[in-house]
Amino acid sequence: MEKVAFLIQNGYTFCMTTNPHTLPVDFLECPADCPFLGMRTFMPNTLPFYCNQYETFLGANPGQKILRCANCRGVVRDNVAAGLAFIESYIGVPAIETREAFLRLDHSFQKMFVDLISKTGVQIILSTGESDKPANLADDILKKWKEAQDRAGSPEMQEFAGILDAEGMPLMSRQTKTLLMNLFQVLDNSEKDMIKNVLQNQKQIDSFLEQFDRQPQDNDLLKNVRSLIYDYDRQRQEMEREQQRQREELRQREALALFMQRRNNERGFSR
To answer: Please, how many CA atoms are within 13 Å of residue 119, restricted to the half-sphere of its CB?
Structure first.
């Protein structure tokens, strides 16, 4: 799922990506061609950009440029700066009230705010005109934290996590597992059944994961993965129909063989 840039020089085309580990500490923005940059626009009410290398959602500056996380820059995280960057990257919502309330929060709640958004990307938003804003924001942080824990610990998500960690499952990166878990949350029930069937089908799983890892993490990711799931589900159904046809042919041959054996036995007995 890499993003690449191309340099044409002296008639030759070179495939390039920016290695963020070679950038200076004071280079704040995430390079557009960073191989670790992904999108999570398929998740509702969620920040749009995600770093696959450090498994964190990313904030933005007032110019809406994506910002590198502290781990990428090799610095200690500043919770106030990180929280403001997350608020700046909210999609389609007014964030002035939330920003003001965040700045007045206790340091422990500011850290909780940043920890929660970095892991889940959830947009925690105060309504315009809410009274006692820092207290309301603190309540919202606790509420969203509990919702995230309940969702991650739900039987449905635990079952899917168990499938990904099952014995005999092909080796996959932690980032791939995280992305599959994120996508699973937004699939409808029939699609969830489809992807579980594919991941438990030994004849399909290797090919599916190879195709899945090739999908660009862009705005079309959910659409493309859905198409992939439906395609593999059709293949699975075709395989099952073929297996059923073969079983039926075998049953008919066995029945015919048994009939012939009985008839021959009856002829021998009649003699």
So the answer is: 11
At 102-148, the pLDDT tens digits run 999 999 999 999 999 999 999 999 876 666 789 999 999 999 999 99
Kindly report, residue by residue over 58-103, the tens digit of the pLDDT: 999 999 999 999 999 999 999 999 999 999 999 887 788 899 999 9
The answer to whether residues 144 and 115 touch, using CB atoms and an 8 Å cutoff, is: no
Please spell the DSSP secondary structure of the chain, one letter per residue: ----EEEEETTEEEEE---GGGS-TT--BPPTT-TTEEE-TTSTTB-SEEETTTTEE--B-TT--BB--HHHHTS---HHHHHHHHHHT-SSS--HHHHHHHHTS-HHHHHHHHHHHHHH-B---PPTT-SSHHHHHHHHHHHHHHHHHHHHTSHHHHHHHHHHT-TTPPP--HHHHHHHHHHHHHS-HHHHHHHHHHHT-TTTHHHHHHHHHTS--STTHHHHHHHHHHHHHHHHHHHHHHHHHHHHHHHHHHHHHHHHHHHHHHHHHH-
Q: Cα dihedral sign for 121, 127, 133, 139?
A: negative
The residues with which 122 forms a beta bridge, in sequence order, are: 46
Distance of CA 166 to the CA centre of its chain: 18
Give Cα 214 distance to the centre of its chain.
14
Distance of CA 150 to the CA centre of its chain: 18
Distance CA(240)–CA(246), nearest Å, equals 10
Q: List C-alpha distances in Å: 154 to 147, 149, 179.
A: 10, 8, 18
Give the up-direction half-sphere exposure of residue 20: CA atoms within 13 A in the CB hemisphere.
Answer: 25
Predicted TM-score (pTM) of the model is: 0.81
